[in-house]
Write a structure and sequence with these properties.
The chain is of the alpha+beta class. The protein contains nine helices and six strands; from the N terminus they run βαββαβαβαααβααα. Helix 5 packs antiparallel against helix 6 and helix 7 crosses helix 8. Strand 2 and strand 3 form a beta hairpin. The radius of gyration is 22 Å and the shape is elongated.
Amino acid sequence: MEIKLIEIGGFKALFDSQRSPKKSGRKSDTVGDFFLDDAGWNMTRTHYSLSYGIDDYLLIGPNDLKLASDLTKLGDCHAKANRSIDVWVEITAPRYFWQDWVTYTVGVLELDPTIDCVALPSESTNHRILKDEIRVEDFEVEDEDDKYRINLIIGMINDIKARTDLDATQKILKIKKILPESYKQKRGYKLTYQAIRRILQQRDPHLLPEFKVVCDFFKSLPLAVELLLV
């Protein structure tokens, strides 16, 4: 299994919006804003804003960070501003992992062009299964016994692909019927910090070791101690 960070942003929006309910913007001690020059918005100077890690432009104030952490401790209804922080990730995981993952629908958006403006569609089994060579590496395996059984399945899949009495659609349908749950698929997702905190609360620990990989990755995100682990 593999998880990769694509982009993260929205911290400036969090520290601004969290003070709106009580009109306490004057107490904000975060310094910095979107940088505007003669050519327009300069997207290379939005550290913690639109694209994390590019430049040290936004200096987060201790008072703003403490307020955000305190609101987070009070629960989702008080920490609505945490939805401002968006994390875009790419996850390659077995099919059995995705069955549990679909539980998280609030604050989690699959990066598919039909439902989001970010055109990062997930891998399609229909498009891959006949075109790609199926290998053991395409499955989540733990030991030699797993490899032996997967190789048997790969042999059956290759037999179906080699049949001349079936068209492409018939081959795909037959292969899908025997494709193991350990077959890995890559998907792109956008999650808010609020959704990530909920995942950490509910799925750390979890029966599936893949969730430990995901949770360890989320714990490494910026300001995780203050906003995700409280």
